[in-house]
Amino acid sequence: MVYVFGLLLATGALAGFLAFAGRIEGLLSRATGVVALPGRSGRPPVWHPEGVQALLREAGYDRLTPLAFYGICAAGAIAGLMVGNFVAPGVTVVMLVGAGLGAMFPFYLMSGRAERKARERRQQFAEAIETLRGLMRVGYGLERALEFLASEGPLLVRPAMRRAVVALRTGGLRAALETLREQIASYDGDRLALSLAASAAYGGRNTGDVLDNLARAVRDDLLVQQEAEAEMARQELAARIIGGMPIVILAAMFRFSPDYAAIYREPLGQSLLAMMFGLIVVGYVLMRRAMQLPRPGRLLVDLAMEEER
Fold this sequence. Notes:
Blueprint: H1 2-19, H2 21-32, H3 49-59, H4 66-87, H5 92-137, H6 142-152, H7 158-171, H8 173-184, H9 187-202, H10 207-256, H11 267-291, H12 303-308
Helix pairs in contact: 1-4, 3-5, 4-5, 5-6, 5-10, 5-11, 6-7, 7-8, 8-9, 9-10, 10-11
């Protein structure tokens, strides 16, 4: 009954938080302003509001605000605290570890979804380039080709193409290419913008060949990335098994052999538990970083110079 009450309390607290999240976020932004903390490659850390917003956007949850996501993490921390108390009643270290894992679980889910979305977006982007190449080869102009992609192209690419069409009609080719770069925000998008700008500057007779080479390059990059990710998935599974085995054994000992686990309720035993959990986390993070693929950078493209030529 206690756990049911705690779960209902956490759910109610989360619902109340989400109901007032907009007002709280407005008050905090007016009181403190926006502070950007630089991370690697100029990107804010994932726990920072700007980093959370970027993560949610990449995962496809544009309407979910960072403050609401923090509320979900807080609810996850409460749930993890309850699970820790269920596994080892009264053991502070286990309860804190459960709260930490519960708070990080939404980040884990969003990161996985963002990676899958990014992979799918790159695949559909390659399809869009091949379609654009075919349309321009049969006589479509750039505006008509973009209009076709905006209405009939791959689903994840349509919003970027719609904005590019609007920019092309109002600001010309340079504005359209800049919009494409901003919307796609990737190395592939920079290459497409540079290819179209160079074709427009030096003549569009070879535009089809340029787009064909670009689509082939994106496909090859995706194939290499998929092979590397498959190998990483096997290594990560091994890391999870190695890191999770002591936790499973400890949880089973607390639940089914409380006499053997009695020493871990003492201050010295809890210090050993804290050290063990810390070493597991550090080892897992180091293994993840060692297996992490490098993020593709961005191209510094001067579209104004290309257009003037």
